[in-house]
């Protein structure tokens, strides 16, 4: 049985819908992981250990266990305690928090690396520590880690395929559905791979633009 | 003159790190509009004393007063933070390494604190930024980012940033020490201008010539004590203390090398 890509156009609408879901879930999780990362980093560096402790446990959970398991836990597990999330929301939260923990590590290192004189200068003007962090220290730290955070975001895009297991009709699941109807796995997986690649290129383009804008402000 | 109430008053300042005493019972009174220079070898405690004024390096013992407010009041943490943030708005500080905010433009560096703390509108902030940058001769760089400025230009912006809070006192912590020699003068000129406007200033410096030409009073510090103080012509031309003489001789020798 040879390859036959002529079946693909008939299922293009399903595939393209899958592309949209993948972009949606990646964008949602990327935004959550970015701001979540900043939030966790500030908690880890600047709060009392009583506040820090639950976040440490949380961090351990998200770094030390498989993402797949985390998604199951959020989607299927939380129902038992009365939290019934739509699959898309569960996927965004799972992916977002997972990568927030990784981003937090990067941002913490960058915050510590910001020159002490920056905080001093801000405090000398009368800013509180919180104001100085928000306006002076954290923005600089975030600028420094945009490239590695970008790498995390590319990984996030690829890991978004995992949310197919909780039933979000993103690109991988859409390809599987098309395969189920046509028994042509090779063709549809190649098509899905091509679309992932294109989304990837788009993301890299956006990241490069952000980096360039930051460079201009140096 | 002598019975004038001091504007800035440091009373019996002591500071130690473990067993090491960096400040050993120092008192300093500065009247409104006075300009005081603190000179001395490195490690003498002069920067520590300056940084104690706005409680950046809190004293172990002693009091610092600005007019009728004690700066280093002992208060519960939250109240202290509120108090010190208020007090610091009145005390401008300029650092050796400028500490401009590199992610903000010159304009934003100057307007950040006034906008956040005094609730200035965009228009008011713009006017303030122009006024202060005009004063330090940096108005034509208002849209630049700090990375594109020379050291002297950075320091002038840093001075404008401090002035934008309309402080009652300005503290200079070796403001020209990190500058290439040919850039020192432009910063000194700005400081002279402030002197002519009768800004109260405390200046930690290695620039003896500058100290002599602008200051009303000079303190020579060594090993945590004020060894000698007086008017500049006295300290620089005819010091009583042997340590002061030695320090100035060495300094002069270095300067002429």
From TrEMBL, chain A:
Transmembrane residues, as ranges?
20-45, 57-79, 85-102, 186-207
Which CDD domains does this one have?
TM_PBP2
Name listed for the protein in its UniProt record:
Amino acid ABC transporter permease
Which top-rank group of organisms is this from? Bacteria
Q: Which UniProt keywords apply?
A: Amino-acid transport, Cell membrane, Membrane, Transmembrane, Transmembrane helix, Transport
Lineage here is:
Bacteria, Pseudomonadati, Pseudomonadota, Alphaproteobacteria, Rhodobacterales
Q: Report the locations given in the UniProt record.
A: Cell inner membrane; Cell membrane
What biological processes does GO assign it? Answer: amino acid transport
Q: List, for all copies, the residue spans of the domain called ABC transmembrane type-1.
A: 19-207
Q: Which NCBIfam families match?
A: HEQRo_perm_3TM
UniProtKB/TrEMBL annotation, chain B:
Q: Does the keyword Aminoacyl-tRNA synthetase apply?
A: no
Q: Which InterPro entries match?
A: AAA+_ATPase, ABC_ATPase_HisP-typ, ABC_transporter-like_ATP-bd, ABC_transporter-like_CS, MetN_ABC_transporter-like, P-loop_NTPase
Tell me, in one coarse class, where this protein mainly resides: membrane
Keyword Zinc in the entry? The reply is no
GO cellular component terms listed in the entry, alphabetical order? plasma membrane
Could you say which protein family the record assigns here? Belongs to the ABC transporter superfamily.
Identification of the protein by name = Amino acid ABC transporter ATP-binding protein
Q: Which organism is it from?
A: Maritimibacter fusiformis
């Amino acid at each position: 049985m040879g390859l036959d890509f002529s079946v693909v156009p008939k299922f293009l609408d399903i595939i393209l819908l899958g592309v949209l879901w993948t972009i949606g879930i990646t964008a949602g999780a990327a935004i959550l992981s970015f701001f979540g990362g900043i939030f966790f980093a500030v908690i880890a560096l600047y709060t009392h250990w009583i506040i820090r402790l639950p976040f440490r446990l949380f961090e351990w959970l998200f770094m030390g266990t498989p993402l797949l398991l985390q998604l199951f836990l959020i989607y299927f597990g939380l129902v038992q305690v009365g939290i019934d999330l739509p699959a898309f929301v569960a996927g965004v939260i799972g992916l977002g928090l997972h990568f927030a923990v990784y981003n937090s590590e990067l941002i913490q290192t960058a915050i510590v690396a910001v020159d002490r004189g920056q905080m001093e200068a801000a405090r000398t003007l009368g800013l509180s520590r919180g104001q100085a962090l928000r306006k002076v220290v954290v923005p600089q730290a975030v600028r420094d880690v945009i490239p590695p955070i970008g790498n995390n975001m590319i990984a996030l895009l690829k890991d978004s395929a995992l949310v197919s297991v909780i039933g979000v009709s993103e690109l991988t699941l859409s390809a599987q559905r098309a395969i189920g109807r046509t028994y042509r796995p090779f063709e549809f997986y190649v098509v899905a791979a091509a679309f992932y690649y294109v989304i990837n290129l788009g993301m890299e383009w956006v990241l490069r633009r952000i980096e360039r804008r930051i460079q201009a402000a140096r | 003159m002598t019975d004038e109430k001091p504007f800035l008053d440091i009373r019996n300042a002591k500071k130690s790190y473990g067993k090491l005493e960096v400040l050993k019972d120092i008192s300093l009174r500065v009247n409104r509009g006075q300009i005081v220079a603190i000179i001395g070898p490195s490690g003498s405690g002069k920067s520590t004393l300056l940084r104690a004024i706005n409680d950046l390096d809190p004293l172990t013992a002693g009091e610092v007063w600005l007019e009728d407010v004690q700066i280093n009041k002992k208060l519960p943490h939250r109240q202290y933070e509120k108090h010190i943030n208020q007090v610091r708005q009145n005390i401008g500080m300029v650092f050796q390494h400028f500490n401009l905010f590199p992610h903000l433009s010159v304009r934003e560096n100057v307007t950040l604190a006034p906008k956040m703390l005094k609730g200035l509108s965009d228009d008011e902030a713009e006017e303030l930024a122009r006024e202060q940058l005009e004063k330090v001769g940096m108005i034509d760089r208002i849209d630049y980012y700090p990375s594109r400025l020379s050291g002297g230009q950075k320091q002038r912006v840093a001075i404008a940033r401090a002035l934008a809070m309309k402080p009652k006192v300005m503290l200079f912590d070796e403001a020209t020490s990190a500058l290439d020699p040919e850039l020192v003068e432009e910063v000194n000129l700005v400081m002279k201008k402030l002197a002519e406007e009768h800004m109260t200033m405390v200046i930690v410096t290695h620039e003896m010539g500058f100290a002599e030409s602008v200051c009303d009073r000079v303190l020579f510090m060594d090993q945590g004590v004020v060894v000698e103080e007086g008017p500049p012509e006295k300290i620089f031309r005819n010091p009583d203390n042997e340590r002061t003489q030695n320090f100035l001789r060495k300094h002069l020798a270095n300067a002429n090398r």
